[in-house]
């Protein structure tokens, strides 16, 4: 467990670090140095922060916490350059993170919660139940670990790991700002994608704040009857409410929203479903990701190639405003695909 006498600095923004440094008798410039050491250089050992005085390094070591997780297990795919990390947190909880490298692109899928309360019926993470939100430091440390241990530069971040990012909205946005900051990871906002199952008040907040990070909405059904069954959150904020908000966003000519549609055999893959989906998204400036289901738990299966191609053909024939992509998840042989992240022992217990 964390020692209560120590302050957790990992996760603080630059101004917060500057304020803390001044409160302990240092200059605010020390806060800028700390920010750069922790995030840009990925250093968590004060002894390695060589442009900071020896005295302050000793103070940091005795009075602060600069690392929030440690590696418990690393699993590498035999099919592609994909690695799944199981991290242990200070309160003995576990989260998973996935690194996916393909040619010049290195995408890291990070978690925002321990478990998930949304309880999508087809998602393995939902079977864990919900434990707690991750701190900003715990979100950021996932990326720091991957960057420090894989040579390929990180090009993209997706908040599509364990948890519902918009139910940890403030910390997720704060961590994304650290990833974007030039003294942090210096990633463009367009390289950071935040996914949501459809938390409508937070979607509205994201839009009203004019956030420049990419937004992905997990739709996964073409009608409310199906979505009610596989995504209970739909009973509170249904498809029409989400589409209405997205249309307003699209009309303002801001950043294009992405919809994700996990295609499941005999659940949402019929020709009728394809027609309904095309009508829903007609005229909306958006990207539609079709994701063939990654089999994990329960009754759900991946459609065969014939069903997939038939579904795509209908979408293309009725295409109006939306762009269609098929996304095949990486790391399926190590349960690192979309919807597969789960701490197995949690389910067993």
Outline the structure in words.
There is one protein chain. The chain is of the alpha/beta class and 349 residues long. It has two domains: 7-65, DNA polymerase, domain 1 (Orthogonal Bundle), CATH 1.10.150; 69-348, Aldolase class I (TIM Barrel), CATH 3.20.20. It is built from eleven helices and 14 strands. It has helices at residues 14-23, 28-39, 54-63, 136-149, 169-180, 200-208, 224-230, 239-251, 271-281, 305-317, 344-348; strands spanning 7-8, 64-65, 69-76, 81-89, 94-102, 105-109, 113-115, 130-133, 156-159, 192-196, 214-218, 257-263, 286-292, 322-326. The strands form three sheets. It has a ten-stranded mixed β-sheet, with helices on one face. Helix 5 links the parallel strand 9 and strand 10. Mean pLDDT is 91; it is low at 344-349.
Index terms:
349 residues; alpha/beta; DNA polymerase, domain 1; TIM Barrel; 10-stranded mixed beta sheet; elongated; disordered C terminus
Number of strands: 14
Distance between the termini: 22 Å
Top CATH class of the largest domain: Alpha Beta
Question: What is the CATH architecture assignment of the largest domain?
Answer: Alpha-Beta Barrel
Mean pLDDT: 91
Strand content: 15-25%
Structure annotation, total helices: 11
- CATH homologous superfamily of the largest domain - what is it? Aldolase class I
CATH topology of the largest domain: TIM Barrel
How many domains, in number, for the residues? 2
**Low-pLDDT ranges:** 344-349
Radius of gyration from the alpha-carbon trace, in angstroms:
21 Å
Summarize the main sheet.
10 strands, mixed
- Which strand order spans the largest sheet, edge to edge or round the barrel? 3-4-5-6-9-10-11-12-13-14
Note the run of SSEs as H and E. Answer: EHHHEEEEEEEHEHEHEHHEHEHEH
